[in-house]
Amino acid sequence: MDAPAGEAAIAGLIGGALRLDPAAYRLALDAPGGLALALWIFALAGLSAALAQSVALFANRVRPWRFVASLTVGAGLYTLSVLVWIAALALVTTLLLDREVPAVALVRLVGLAHAPQLFAVLGFLPYFGAGIGAILTIWTYLGVAVAARATFALDLPETLGALAGAWLLTLLLQRTVGRPVARLTRWVRRTVAGTPPTPARRSGEGGP
User: Which of 3, 56, 79, 100 has a beta carbon 3.0–4.6 Å from 42's, enabling a disulfide?
Assistant: First the structure.
């Protein structure tokens, strides 16, 4: 079957990912523009997530250009964070499972698996936002698991092990070298939005 191209093909791939259809992921590996599609999904998912958190920007009455800039920065940071997670997944797959997984293929597959995150904007809904966010996260992880099994022939224990290992590795990075990066990220967000810095956390409080 030839890999499709064009808007209809993009809609088909995204629809297949939302349905957790293994065929969509197999097709995505060779689809023209598959890498660009993955990066666009990351960017739009990040924009959607940023919109869900934009209530604070409205509350602070930021200027329109700062609002747009904040959304752009949020989308960019989201994309970078997912690429870091992909790198962790590739490392875990190589070291623990002794499987050589091409980085570009991983980006294509994980990007398509992030299709549910296009609805992250629904996280702004009161009472339901947190639950919707949890559902979207589980949906995304299921998509990655389906993609791994459909394209790299990983069995269920290997798939779960790779996902768990990548999660633990990124958590370790967040709690160590990621702390200065997190502070820099918060500074960039505040500077772009033009909002005052939040009070420093006291010792013992959680969070990155």
Answer: 79
Question: What pTM value is reported for the model?
Answer: 0.81
Please write the tens of the pLDDT for every residue from 120-159: 999 888 888 889 999 999 999 999 999 998 888 888 888 8
Dihedral of CA atoms 55, 60, 66, 68 in degrees, nearest 10, equals 20
Rounded distance between C-alpha atoms, residue 21 and residue 150, angstroms: 9
Quick one: how many helices (H) and strands (E) in the chain? 9, 0
Please write the tens of the pLDDT for every residue from 173-192.
888 877 777 777 777 666 76
Q: Which two tokens stand for residue 173?
A: 């990075």
Cα 119 off chain centre by: 12
Q: What are the C-alpha distances in Å from 133 to residues 57, 87, 92, 120?
A: 20, 23, 26, 7
Q: So where are the chain's domains?
A: 7-193
Query: In a 10 Å sphere around its CB, with 0-12 CB exposed, 13-18 middle and 19+ buried, how is residue 59 labelled?
Result: exposed
